[in-house]
Amino acid sequence: MLENIIEFFKNLPPKICTSCGKEIEEQHECYGNKCDSCNIL
C-alpha cells in the first residue's frame, strides 16, 4: 500500500506557475501555485 502512495507522488506532473507559466521547482503536492519570482509579497 505504501508503495502505491509513493508511486502516486512520484508520477504527479510538474506544477506550473499561474502567473508566468514557468515550471515551479518545488514539491508537486504542495499548495503553492506561483514560482518564487512571482510570489513576492
How is the secondary structure organized here?
Blueprint: H1 2-10
Properties at a glance:
41 residues, Protein YhfH
Helix and strand run? H
Structural class: mainly alpha
Please tally the helical runs, counting DSSP H or I stretches of 4 or more residues. 1
Estimate the strand proportion.
Answer: under 5%
Number of strands: 0
Uncertain runs with pLDDT below 50, 5 residues or more?
none
Radius of gyration: 12 Å
Helix content: 10-25%
Distance between the termini: 40 Å
Shape: elongated
Mean residue pLDDT: 82
Largest sheet: none
InterPro entries: YhfH-like
Protein name: Protein YhfH
Organism: Sporosarcina soli
Q: How would you describe what is shown here?
A:
By secondary structure, the protein is mostly helical. It is 22% helix and 0% strand. It is built from 1 helix and no strands. The longest helix is centred in the N-terminal third of the chain and has 9 residues, at 2-10. The protein starts with a helix and ends in a 31-residue tail after the last helix. InterPro entries: YhfH-like. It comes from Sporosarcina soli. This is Protein YhfH.
Short description:
The protein is an all-alpha fold and 41 residues long. The chain has one helix spanning 2-10.
